[in-house]
Amino acid sequence: MPETPILKVENLTISFGKNEVIHGISYSLNSNEILGIVGESGSGKSVSSLAILGLLPKKIANINSGSITYNNTDLTTLKPKLFQKIRGNKIAMIFQEPMSSLNPSMTCGKQVQEILLQHTEQSKTDAKEAVILLFEKVKLPNPERVYDAYPHEISGGQKQRVMIAMAIACKPDILIADEPTTALDVTVQKDIISLLKELQAETKMSIIFITHDLALISEIANRVLVMYKGHIVEESLVADIFNNPQNNYTKALINARPSLDTRLKKLPTIQDFLDNDISDDIISHDQRQKNHEKLYGKPPLLEVINVEKAYISKSGLFSQSQSFKAVNDVSFKLYEGETLGLVGESGCGKSTLGNAILQLDKATSGQIIYKGIDITKLSKAETRTLRKDIQIIFQDPYSSLNPRIPVGQAILEPMKVHKLYNSDAERKARVIDILNKVGLSEDYYNRYPHEFSGGQRQRIGIARTIALQPKLIVCDESVSALDISVQAQVLNLLNTLKEDFGFTYIFISHDLAVVKYMSDQLLVMNQGQIEELDDADIIYANPKQEYTKKLIEAIPKGI
Amino acid sequence: MSHKSNSLRGLALQKFKKNFWGVFSFCFIIFVGFIAVFAYIFAPDNTQHANQMHLAIHSKKPGFSIDMLTIPSDRKEEQGGLDAILFGKKNTNTEVPISDFSVEDGVLIYQEYAADGIEGAEKTIELSIFPNQSVEGFIVERTFLFGTDKYGRDLLSRVLVGARISFFIGFVAVFISLLIGLLMGSAAGYFGGKVDAVIMWVINVTWSIPTLLLVIAITLALGKGFWQVFIAVGLTMWVEVARIVRGQIISTKEMQYVTAARALGYTDYRIIVKHILPNIMAPLIVISAANFAAAILIESGLSFLGIGAQPPMASWGAMIKDHYNYIILGKPYLAIIPGLCIMILVMAFMLIGNALRDALDVKN
């Protein structure tokens, strides 16, 4: 590989207002290489790459010092007019969210064609041909159809392919991919990654690949930068990072993700690495077996029998209404004290099933029997009493807390509504107790949600959920929005709470690694139906269904 | 637990305090509100509705001065002090503008004022009708700072007392519109489906009725008067509030904390009142400020058309109506002064609405 830097970032410092977010970072990008930048949210990985394209918000962001040199021009001082010639033409970018980065009122073909017309002197017909060639190159099925299709008519993965086509339309020297697969399912992610690799090999461009997922980066990058709080903490070849990480943060990042092979009792967090206090206790196969025998000897806590949920869409006044089955004939049993993992790709009906069990969205047909009572037939008031027993932990820690209620009040309110304990003083003591349990101090009682970080908010959400001492908790993608290190903390917390209070979990996630770590039984869903249901380890070791195999294969394994 | 926390409301208040025009308008509105409540204390003419007429000195320029003879009436009105402060003195005394007077043999001889240099009639009156047998304190020089209206009433007093109507119509109309709008809007937005369809139908029908027509209908049903106008304006304005509340609730309903509240077994009433409404206060406050301004304008318009506050009640709109034909007669101030008052008050509300919108915008 030739070691000629095409882009050089030197001593770059960026601040938002008075708040410095990038502290003098330097790195270079060689031609014909894929550079991975990995870090958690707030590490400055996106900000530094936006700076390369001059796309930082003008009013608040400030480049204090340093330079970004591309082809002997300093991009930090470039005039806006000249920048337009570089953007999209020499340096292109792919964004995270394919749903919102395409204009919904223009056909996909037109949007790509526009770029060609902007940056080259092609005629319209030539440009159209070029676009169709590009679509073939990014392996879109039936390029002619996609050319005339509007963004809502194609799938998420196809949209991301259109975005890539758009980015490589002018044969750029550098392609910046900012979390291009985070919003996509694992199987689609795999396809996109291999596409990017092929394109890179073919066109010899340089790619900066930004992600929070270390395992993913090992599949694509040649060289990796690890960023933490605006610093580059480690930089080396991808194999070295994985086999011989130097920095504690990198070590934590690699180990905080649940491994697919062994099951640690407690996932290590960054703090553990800093304190050098890592326990590698493993739950052995025998321990697990023994535990399961005990669990499955008892009668089931919850029984789901032939549950269906249909959505009816009426497209026109005279056309027949169409029904779509989001959950189709699902049956399973859940035993007290176990964790049932529910895994599947987006749209497979796993959240709908969760909502049906919670009675938030009533099932169309079928029975859900909880402790011998069919809860689909309960009255409104009875359902409200049942809520005390079946609870949910949400995905998004930012929107699951009411921004106008102090957290202490938010945890106290459910107790009050369900008339637990006798007085407010007693309840308050209990709230403080719970706050301590989830690792927050009582000082936080009167604070508002916006004063907390994502991980802390998720803890508050958990505290509110366990305030009612439920029996069954549905965790709907509860850790998906969290950074890996925080995710490890929350998973540990969930396991500790389960031991302390004897909860039963239904753990819903698209992330097979996390589900496998948490679950006793695993339920794989696809298109509203159960594909496979068995012990988590057994499914992972020998998947029986094609779909499950595909799913397991698509997980980025790391090195 | 000594930690003092910054609630979103606290942050918004801090932001509002930094906005000069917002704070200025707020102070101005408090000032006008104060004047409106205590209008009769400040008004030179503190009779009920500032209705002391002196036809001889009608439509005089601002700053016009004249000697004024007060002839006490034999009828004594019984009135409490607080009543007089809040609603003006009930007055049966006669006031006569005079150009000259003399006292001879217990008789007061005075010459009535007449405009345009004409000699006024000479009249006599027994001193015995005055208490203390003396005219001292009953003949004083009176200055009309804003001039006089077409019935010779003090324009300044009328403007001050008229502020009440403008101010209170704002409050009453906004209160009525919030009451109905919140109720209907939350029901439509939260429950959706058939409830939503019915309420939206009512909203659309109400929206299509012109305010004027509604006021006429209500006036027919309830009789003429300013209370009817208050109610009519409130009844037309709730639709905007309801639409905004509905839209906001539909989007807030999707937030996970509302689902969380449902999952925690809260009742619908509790979810709406405690979890949704506090979060949609920002647009509600802003629309209320705009509605306040709109209500003032609508009332002025209705009074101008003669179906608002009825004479002798003072109202800015009615004052413009009374005097708009003086504009071409070279005495535009009679209409301009109340017009300016309306403009400034409405503008203050608009500015406060803008400032609140900026302050309550949590995104920045």
Automatic annotation (TrEMBL), chain A:
Which InterPro entries does the UniProt record give?
Answer: AAA+_ATPase, ABC_transp_ATP-bind, ABC_transporter-like_ATP-bd, ABC_transporter-like_CS, Oligopep_ABC_C, P-loop_NTPase
Keywords, comma-separated and alphabetical? ATP-binding, Nucleotide-binding, Transport
Q: Name one Pfam family in it.
A: oligo_HPY
Q: Where is the ABC transporter domain?
A: 7-254, 302-552
Annotated Gene Ontology MF terms? Answer: ATP binding; ATP hydrolysis activity
Q: Which family does it belong to?
A: Belongs to the ABC transporter superfamily.
Q: What is this protein called?
A: ABC transporter ATP-binding protein
Q: Which gene encodes it?
A: gsiA
TrEMBL record, chain B:
GO biological process per UniProt: transmembrane transport
Q: Which domain of life is it from?
A: Bacteria
Annotated membrane-spanning segments are 20-43, 165-191, 198-220, 226-245, 280-298, 333-356
Q: What are the ABC transmembrane type-1 domain coordinates in residue numbering?
A: 163-353
Mitochondrion found in the keyword field: no
Q: Which family does it belong to?
A: Belongs to the binding-protein-dependent transport system permease family.
Q: What is this protein called?
A: ABC transmembrane type-1 domain-containing protein
Q: What is the lineage of its organism?
A: Bacteria, Pseudomonadati, Bacteroidota, Flavobacteriia, Flavobacteriales
